[in-house]
Design brief:
alpha/beta; DHBP synthase; Rossmann fold; twelve-stranded mixed sheet; five-stranded parallel sheet; 11 helices; 17 strands
Length: about 350
């Protein structure tokens, strides 16, 4: 299979081919403001199953259904006042809402659950694709399961070349992290996955909203009720740890690890780059340093996280040391970083 990267703005014929492919039950990769998605007709169970096969995704891991307007009664039922408040405040945008599903949504899309995850993306291409196709689009992140999510067409191609016909190029994703997921079943707000929209943002609309108690668990053995809960996610090819310590102990730790690993990488804040650069010059084998962003620029950190992890693979790093970017583990960036490091957080 030949994989074609389609320029949405300059290749109208190619884009029309993407729409036709979706209508015929095929798979199309497309951009959103969060990460790129690998999409199929959400109400066509056979099309949906292709997503699981291409991604090597477990079939008990539910998909998010992307829609192009705020009318959700076609797809969900028992919708409470709190849900409508969230929709009014945050849609279109990076918020996924879980509700009881209508019969039109097949169990293949919901991974056998009686609930459906709905989102209205805030991205011109995604919304246009849904409208022109004429149906909701089920789409998890456009990567092989377990790998870092893709935030550019190039990274989608890295993972999915030869597996899909079309990747629509919409430049780099603006946010760079998957959406916040909140369950509104029984109109009770439970945040199942943190994202760009924070718990405090949601509490401004639903004061009683709370975080799911197992949001950062290493292993959730039960059937997952939301994407991002059960399986290994976001991992680089090399081993990865998060190190919380002072510079002196970090230096000693890295020196010791050079006895066991050939190519060590460090993920750091811009404010700390000079320390690692100077320290690297003292080593027999220099470390590979990637700056994720500045401490106080949350959007820069989120936009760069997955791309930074993938760069370590490009550099052939077999061991990666990440700074602890913040102490709030309900923070979406730390949530993803913990999963990427298989919850290997070391405090010295």
């Amino acid at each position: 299979m030949e994989t074609n990267i389609i320029d949405f703005y300059n290749d109208k014929n190619g884009y029309n081919s993407c729409i036709e492919a979706l209508k015929y039950g095929e798979i199309v990769v497309f951009p959103t403001e969060t990460v790129y998605g690998i999409g199929a007709n959400a109400i066509d169970k056979n099309a949906v199953l292709k997503i699981f096969d291409i991604k090597c995704r477990e079939k008990d891991n539910p998909l998010i259904v992307h829609i192009a307007d705020k009318e959700i009664s076609k797809y969900a039922k028992n919708i409470g006042e709190g849900t409508y408040k969230l929709i009014e405040k945050f849609w279109p945008g990076p918020l996924t809402i879980i509700l009881e599903k209508m019969e039109i949504i097949p169990y293949e899309t919901t991974a056998g659950l009686e609930t459906v995850a709905l989102r209205m993306p805030n991205h011109q291409i995604a919304l246009d694709l849904i409208k022109e196709s004429g149906f909701p689009i089920a789409a998890p992140s456009a990567n092989i399961s377990g790998r870092p999510s893709a935030t550019s067409a190039k990274r989608c191609f890295d993972d999915l070349n030869g597996k899909v016909n079309f990747i629509i190029d919409g430049s780099q994703s603006y946010i760079g992290l998957e959406s916040t997921v909140i369950s509104m079943v029984n109109d009770e707000g439970v945040i199942l996955r943190p994202g760009h929209i924070t718990i405090n943002d949601i509490k401004s609309v639903i004061p009683n909203a709370k975080l799911y108690g197992r949001i950062n668990d290493k292993f959730v053995k039960d059937k997952p009720i939301s994407p991002g809960l059960k399986y290994k996610h976001y991992a680089p090819k090399g081993d990865m740890i998060i190190l919380k310590s002072d510079f002196k102990n970090i230096a000693l730790y890295i020196k010791d690890k050079q006895c066991f690993y050939k190519n060590i990488g460090v993920l750091c804040l811009r404010e700390n780059y000079k320390f690692y650069y100077d320290f690297s010059k003292t080593l027999k084998n220099e470390i590979k340093i990637i700056v994720i962003g500045s401490r106080d620029n949350y959007l820069e950190l989120s936009r760069n996280l997955f791309e930074s992890i993938r760069k370590f693979d490009d550099l052939g790093c077999d061991f990666i040391v990440s700074e602890c970017l913040c102490d709030d583990f309900s923070n979406a960036i730390m949530n993803r970083l913990l999963k990427a490091a298989a919850h290997n957080l070391i405090t010295l």
